[in-house]
Design a protein that fits this description.
- The complex is a heterodimer of chains A (293) and B (336).
- Helix content of chain A is 74%, strand content 3%.
- Chain A is mainly alpha-helical.
- Chain A has a two-stranded antiparallel sheet with strand order 1-2.
- Chain A is globular and about 55 Å long.
- In chain A, 49% of the residues are buried.
- With 336 residues, chain B is mostly helical.
- Helices cover 75% and strands 3% of the residues of chain B.
- Chain B is built from 14 helices and four strands.
- The longest helix of chain B is centred in the last third of the chain and has 29 residues.
- Classes of the chains: A mainly alpha (293), B mainly alpha (336).
- The interface between A and B is large, with 41 and 40 residues.
Chain lengths: 293, 336
């Protein structure tokens, strides 16, 4: 294990973890509050990537770096609205019903994927990054692009964490996650908390898509891989706990990055799923799981 | 329940009479594929009845297929031995996976099956040299000919689709019979008790895990044997067929059909088969329509298509009775 390679892999793991946490946080919130399996979360990521492709790559609202962030904010807002509408119209009926919500979101995946394919086409699309160049330090080189991804993801995670801990509606969300009936007795409206939580979750997934769109490529099928990883994260970390999600995200990011560098990408995911099964056998509620009834 | 028995007999006779009316290989192929899907669906339905969701039916189909290829092509076993043996191997895999993990609930168990499927996918692609070709296995021989009491022989080649049709039909019937017997035995009654109230069932001394393991292992066994049939029917297998999407398709068909009775997965499979056939010329729109139908069915028919049909029949019967009742009263002149 040579030093520079190790440092490089370590940095990549951090970048990967930050984005995975960003996606998983929304998934975890939605599961914790609405008790549904939101399998379409990966497709929101995909739509987010298409959003940055559209609002930054194709329609240039502002040039350069501000344009990227404006595009990202527009994408986040649009996807958040989509999520709120879907929650109000559809997912609301299936709150607490694992099987039905699973099937309904599978149906939504089919619809979103096919729609994206019919509108944008199947082939990979690239988005030119507004952050060219590299930053080098002792023993590592990192592209500015990835650095920005990591910092932005960390800032967004921080904002959400602060919101959940300090704001009144954030407190309501935590209350519902802990005990729905008790929260309702205190006058918390489950409906509005669910809608809010869906909006936040969808916006985070869209942000991740927008951040990673320029780093990788954009096509209608990028959601599946992300979705499975996010589910591994929230299950490893324990459902509905923000701290657990962060640790789970770090675990997945590091296993993926180091496994991918020193073994191969396929073995890395094999280790990941093997680890998932073993951990669930030993600790049925995940590593840091709190058992919510 | 006379009507029900008559309906079952008519259906079985119709199933066996199909090749008398059409020998078109295309339609027979559709029916054989639907039969294979239906077995996967019925297995999944049993697991659902025990209160677990599995998204690994296609993976166990894959275990059966690859196992059968190993046994027949590499070890030289006859198909007729490898066919049940692949089922047993898949069942053992299910047992080993199920024993430690079936006590997990809801989304946790779902993720175990998803993870298991992902691992298997990697195994199929990484260790391709065990089976043969990079992306799958080609040139799998058809089952050997069997002779019936020395009177005549039945051959199973690529050309004899009718005999494959009958093989699949008999296999489907046998599986349905087993599942029917199981659901009307002690185990089946216990399973339905578990589904309607699992905490209550546990409190009266029902061993939940044991029944979940039985249901899951049986489903894996069925899927494995079906995998063997599938491999020797198509003659080639590709890793693409055993992925998450296929497992999810089985789950979708089952839930669409209805999880209340074991006719549900069959109805759902048939529904999807017909839908795909109707939309054949609009290939790229199929997922769009499927997705929309999934959502509409779940919103408007929470008990699935079969449940809705039963509900409609019940409503019709009650309406008829209500219409008939006043007439009787008028004739006798008495109040009941």
């Amino acid at each position: 294990m040579t030093g520079p390679l190790f440092a490089q892999t370590f940095l990549n793991a951090l970048v990967l973890s930050a984005t995975i946490i960003l996606i998983s946080l929304g998934l975890s919130l939605i599961y914790g509050i609405m008790h549904i399996m939101n399998f379409m979360h990966g497709e929101l990521y995909m739509l987010g990537a298409f959003g940055i492709w559209g609002f930054f790559g194709q329609i240039k609202i502002l040039p350069g770096i501000p344009g990227f962030f404006v595009g990202m904010l527009i994408t986040m807002a649009l996807i958040a609205i989509l999520g709120m509408v879907l929650e109000r119209v559809l997912l609301k009926r299936f709150r607490g019903d694992l099987l039905s919500s699973f099937i309904v979101t599978l149906g939504l995946i089919l619809i979103m994927q096919t729609a994206a394919m019919l509108i944008f086409g199947k082939d990979d699309k690239g988005v030119r990054t507004p952050f060219p160049g590299l930053t080098s330090g002792p023993g590592f080189v990192i592209s500015n692009e990835r650095l920005v991804v990591m910092v932005t993801a960390a800032v967004l995670i921080g904002i959400v964490y602060f919101f959940i801990q300090r704001f009144k509606s954030g407190r309501a969300m935590r209350a519902v996650a802990q005990d729905q009936d008790a929260a309702q007795l205190q006058g918390v409206s489950i409906d509005s908390v669910s809608t809010l939580c869906m909006a936040i979750g969808c916006a985070l997934a869209a942000a991740a898509g927008a951040l990673l769109g320029p780093v990788f490529y954009v096509n209608p099928f990028i959601g599946a891989d992300v979705l499975i990883k996010a589910f591994v994260v929230i299950i490893l970390g324990g459902m509905g706990s923000v701290g657990g999600t962060m640790l789970g995200g770090l675990a997945v990011g590091f296993v993926d990055s180091f496994g991918g560098t020193y073994l191969s990408g396929e073995f890395a995911s094999m280790i990941l799923f093997g680890l998932l099964i073993v951990i669930l056998i030993i600790r049925p509620t995940g590593l840091f799981g709190v058992f919510y009834k | 329940m006379r009507a029900r028995q008559v309906a079952v007999v008519v259906l079985v006779v119709a199933m066996f009479a199909v090749p008398l009316f059409t020998k078109d290989p295309y339609y027979l192929h559709l029916l054989i594929s639907a039969g294979i899907q239906a077995i996967l669906g019925v297995g999944l339905w049993m697991v659902l009845s025990a209160g677990n969701i599995t998204v690994a039916q296609a993976s166990f189909l894959g275990i059966g297929s690859y196992m059968s290829v190993l046994l027949v092509v590499k070890a030289g076993w006859p198909f007729w031995v490898a066919f049940p043996a692949s089922g047993v191997v898949a069942g053992l895999f299910g047992l080993v996976l199920g024993i430690p993990t079936l006590r997990l609930r809801g989304v946790y168990f779902v993720m175990v099956t998803v993870g298991f499927g992902m691992i298997l996918n990697i195994v199929w692609t990484r260790f391709w040299w065990v089976w043969g070709f990079h992306t799958g296995v080609m040139n799998i021989p058809p089952p050997g000919a069997i002779s019936v009491f020395g009177l005549f022989t039945i051959e199973f080649g690529a050309q004899q689709r009718v005999s494959f049709y009958y093989l699949t039909a008999i296999f489907v019937l046998v599986i349905l019979l087993i599942v029917y017997r199981m659901t009307h035995s002690r185990i089946g009654l216990t399973l339905s008790a578990i589904r309607s109230a699992d905490d209550l069932s546990a409190s009266v001394g029902i061993d939940l895990s044991r029944h979940r393991i039985i249901a899951f292992t049986a489903a894996c066994f069925f899927a494995g044997a079906t995998g063997s049939l599938y491999a020797h029917y198509t003659g080639f297998i590709s890793n693409q067929v055993f992925g998450f999407q296929q497992s999810a398709n089985v789950l979708m068909a089952t839930v669409i059909g209805g999880t209340g009775a074991f006719a549900g997965p069959i109805v759902g499979t048939g529904f999807f088969a017909v839908l795909n056939e109707v939309l054949r010329s609009f290939q790229e729109y199929i997922p769009l329509v499927q997705g929309a139908i999934l959502i509409l069915v779940l919103v408007f028919m929470p008990t699935g298509i079969w449940g809705a049909l039963l509900g409609a029949a019940e409503w019709w019967k009650r309406r008829k009775r209500r219409n008939a009742a006043p007439a009787k009263e008028a004739v006798t002149g008495e109040r009941p």
